[in-house]
Write a structure and sequence with these properties.
By secondary structure, this protein is α/β, with parallel strands linked by helices. The chain is 45% helix and 13% strand. The chain has a four-stranded parallel β-sheet with strand order 2-1-3-4, with helices on both faces. It has a four-stranded parallel β-sheet with strand order 6-5-7-8, with helices on both faces. The longest helix has 18 residues.
């Protein structure tokens, strides 16, 4: 018989909520961070609004040996979940009930019991976070299948400032993707299927671009000179990008000597103006 102990997988944690379950899920992961060597499955069951959903999640916890952590604010469903879990021998942890009861007593009024209220009251914040996550996921040409969901698509040669502008615009709440143009590599066909009103081609004076690239090359310790920093090659690269912008009917913005705030304001103004003044174009549907 082997003396080697076989480590069994820990039972799952079911995060149950009448809303999306984000707050309960975050708290569970915060706690699990204290046990970095164990991989505990976390299953979020959101938008629980009916009694049969309560019965289903309790049954799942019974069959898997899991525990339930819940943030239910609707009193009847919360009570039913707690009762059914106890009757069937499932450990359940109520993250909301105790605090709701105490506040109701202190404030002298009953809670509304409406799930998802926090998200509704802070919608702008969550939309901004989603925009930032979108920009990070679609930086530097990544995940082209998501481009049609972009409110703004930035296109340009290397070191023209696509990523900083994408992140700045996302903080303002815009879903932004960006695509680098590489010498000798045709842009993806999907670029020309987008609504051209939402695509902005960034251009820059070749001399300034040369300086940006030389500075980057020195920071990286890369050998030079190369075509990447050659003024003649850069001029041709910028001109090729401008031809592509004209081909696609894209808005063109010259970012030479402009602070990022100014460029962002101009992008928003021009995209908004084209959306209001022109009919939809390209195959990409407006988000």
């Amino acid at each position: 018989m082997s003396d080697i102990a076989v480590e069994t997988a820990p039972p799952p944690i079911y995060v149950v909520s009448g809303g999306a379950g984000a707050s309960g899920e975050q708290l569970v992961h915060t706690v699990l961070a204290q046990f970095p060597q164990r991989q505990v499955p976390v299953i979020t069951v959101g938008h629980v609004r009916r009694m049969e959903q309560v019965e289903q999640v309790v049954a799942q916890a019974v069959s898997s040996g899991g525990i339930i952590v819940h943030t239910m604010v609707e009193a009847d469903l919360r009570a039913a979940l707690t009762r059914q879990a106890e009757e069937r021998g499932v450990v359940s942890i109520d993250l909301m009930g105790g605090l709701l009861a105490r506040l109701s007593q202190v404030l002298g009024e009953e809670p509304l019991g409406h799930p998802g209220l926090y998200h509704k009251l802070h919608r702008a914040y969550f939309e901004r976070v989603a925009a930032i996550e979108f920009a990070m996921a679609h930086d530097d040409g990544k995940n082209p299948e998501g481009w049609p969901q972009a409110e703004i698509m930035l296109v340009g040669v290397s070191r023209v400032g696509k990523t900083p502008l994408s992140m700045y615009l996302s903080v303002l709440g815009w879903r932004v993707a960006n695509l680098p143009l590489v010498v000798g590599v045709p842009p993806p066909a999907g670029l020309f299927e987008l609504d051209c009103r939402r695509v902005v081609g960034l251009t820059i004076e070749p001399g300034q671009l040369t300086i940006h690239r030389q500075q980057r090359q020195r920071r990286l310790g890369a050998p030079g000179p190369t075509a990447y920093t050659d003024p003649a090659s850069i001029y041709e690269e910028v001109e090729a990008a401008r031809r592509l912008f004209r081909q696609g009917g894209f808005t063109v913005l010259d970012v030479t000597d402009k602070p990022i705030e100014t460029s962002a304001d101009e992008i928003i103004e021009r995209v908004t103006h084209r959306l209001e003044a022109e009919a939809p174009s390209g195959r990409g549907a407006s988000p």
